[in-house]
């Protein structure tokens, strides 16, 4: 068997370096690619929402919660009788690999007390 020439050695080294670079970039993308740019994670926001706004909280409490998180709330209306039934808000949640937002919906009973919370991450498709 013959020893690899200097040219072959350089080519093998270049292929190995490119392979390592691709593996490194892939590992970084897997590890950090879906981390939100603004640092807001659905799980933490949901835990805070559940802890600070238990069932029976007032609409003023809900508005204060939105304000603490710098979210401008909107109103949710019942289409059948055009009455206000809740508050909604969104938090941008973009990352390297997804264009997303966290959606929050708070529903109130007729006497103005919180009865249901819905929070989820919506990912937009291309």
Automatic annotation (TrEMBL):
Source organism, top-level taxon: Bacteria
Protein name as it appears in the record: Lipoprotein
Organism ancestry: Bacteria, Pseudomonadati, Planctomycetota, Planctomycetia, Gemmatales
């Amino acid at each position: 068997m013959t020893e690899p020439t200097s040219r072959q050695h350089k080519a093998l080294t270049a292929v190995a370096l490119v392979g390592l670079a691709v593996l490194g970039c892939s590992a970084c993308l897997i590890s950090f690619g879906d981390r939100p740019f603004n640092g807001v994670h659905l799980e933490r926001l949901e835990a805070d929402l559940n802890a600070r706004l238990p069932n029976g909280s007032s609409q003023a409490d809900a508005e204060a919660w939105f304000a603490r998180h710098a979210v401008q709330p909107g109103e949710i209306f019942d289409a059948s009788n055009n009455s206000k039934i809740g508050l909604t808000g969104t938090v941008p949640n973009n990352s390297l690999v997804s264009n997303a937002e966290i959606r929050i919906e708070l529903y109130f009973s007729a006497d103005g007390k919180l009865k249901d919370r819905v929070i989820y991450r919506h990912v937009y498709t291309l």
